[in-house]
Amino acid sequence: MADSKKSWTHLDDINRVFCCKKTSMSEYVQEHWKEDAFFGFQFLNGVNPIMIRRCTALPSNFPVTDSMVFPDGQASLAEEMQKGHIFLCDYKNMDGVQANIVNGKQQYLMAPLVLLQKTPDDKMMPIAIQLKQQPAADNPIFLPTDSEYDWLLAKIFVRSADFSEHQLNVHLMRTHLLAEVFAVSLLRNLPMVHPLYKLLLPHTRYTLQINFLARLRLISKEGVFTLFSSSGGEGMMTILRRSLSSVTYRSLCIPEDIKDRGLEAIPNFYYRDDGLRLWDAYIGKRFLGYYYKNDLEVQKDSELQTWILEIFEHGFLSKRNTGIPERFTTVAELIKFVTMVIFTGSAQHAAVNSGQYDFGGWMPNTPISLQLPPPTTKGQTTEATMLNTLPDVNVTVQGMATLWLLSQQSTDFVPLGQYPEDHFTEESPQRMVKGFQKELEVLSAAIKDRNEHLEVPYVYLDPVEVENSVAI
């Protein structure tokens, strides 16, 4: 089937591939992927939880009206925004990107805007979708009240755009490539006896190797992503450039990112809940407070200062508007930055990587490419239209196989907080490690207890499931 360039003729046919590799979550996705509530759920607890933000004013290029989304007149957008119930996902990074050619056919990648509403029963429900950035007569705003396949196909285009945004920005750029920057600067500038080297080295395990393999097997000229995804090839570089320009220090620090996106109080947001607890538990504050007694010691550590300077210059292109520090002046600054480095390579990577097959194994929920343009008028879309829009059989198979591989734990997986190579010999640091491990055990137990009461458990930030480094 990996060589078949035919289109799917029926959704059930996809089971011929899907039945070979299933997880309990991927089976749940297959059953619920068409539902609006599950579509909205994925913006909070799927593999891309960093797109959604609270909407306080509609973008000028998204002219949704009250009559569109509240036809009964029982509410208004202004009122719902005031209450903090309206949310936006804007895929502007995809705007104007040259889509790929796959199997000799032009592919299509949209730059949608999605409006969502938190309902009284605490569900996140999509209420409007515009598939291109600029409003026009041939760019309708799709609504849940439209025909079944108009609305479903609009959501499919969003999910396909989310695949490219997730893979290139959220996953590759913001975890793999940043972890490589931190690791290379560490290996170049800090001697093995330096306490920060000892602290961070376990969080760099396999990172350079896995990134080498990603460049070779996924995003090279003959890589799977390049050959089969709608954003492969020329479009990939456009998206990566735009993604780098959007990276800020605040967006890499989960407490500030959650606050900036206005998501502090949204219910059922388990990525936020577990991520914040992990951020607070991280070991850096214990170690660094022990080795640096005051701010002057930080300022005088020339090796430490060279480490952060190279990160600023080579990782963030010396752009001060990113907020990335050029040097450290206080212990608190150092602790915050090192916490971000460890979080990025462990928890954040786990959150955006480990569930890839769970949510993308059932291809219609996350198509890696689409091969028809979106409808320009309503009322014309059928099931046949949807099937002809979905990727060909071979593209589906290649995508599923890749997501399966990337979602697997390695045979020598090292969970967060475990340090097989004992770099610290002093009694105090060893005591700190044990304290950190105890905190992680408590958090793991709390997450497991919560998940027992959830229809869809959120397991990706359970410390026993989080790898110490970007290693897959």
Polypeptide structure, described:
Residues 1-472 form the Lipoxygenase domain. One of its GO terms (cellular component) is cytoplasm. It comes from Nothobranchius furzeri (Turquoise killifish). Its cofactor is Fe cation. One of its GO terms (molecular function) is iron ion binding. The two termini are 26 Å apart. This protein has helices spanning 15-18, 24-32, 36-45, 66-69, 77-82, 148-189, 195-200, 207-217, 224-228, 234-246, 249-252, 254-260, 270-281, 284-291, 295-300, 302-315, 331-353, 356-360, 383-389, 393-406, 427-451; strands spanning 53-54, 86-90, 101-102, 105-106, 113-118, 124-130, 141-142. The radius of gyration is 23 Å and the shape is globular. It contains 21 helices and seven strands. Strand 3 and strand 4 form a beta hairpin. Helix 6 (148-189) packs across helix 17 (331-353) and helix 13 packs antiparallel against helix 21. Helix content is 50%, strand content 6%. 46% of the residues are buried. With 472 residues, the protein is mostly helical. The strands form two sheets. It has a five-stranded antiparallel β-sheet. Strands 3-4 form a two-stranded antiparallel sheet.
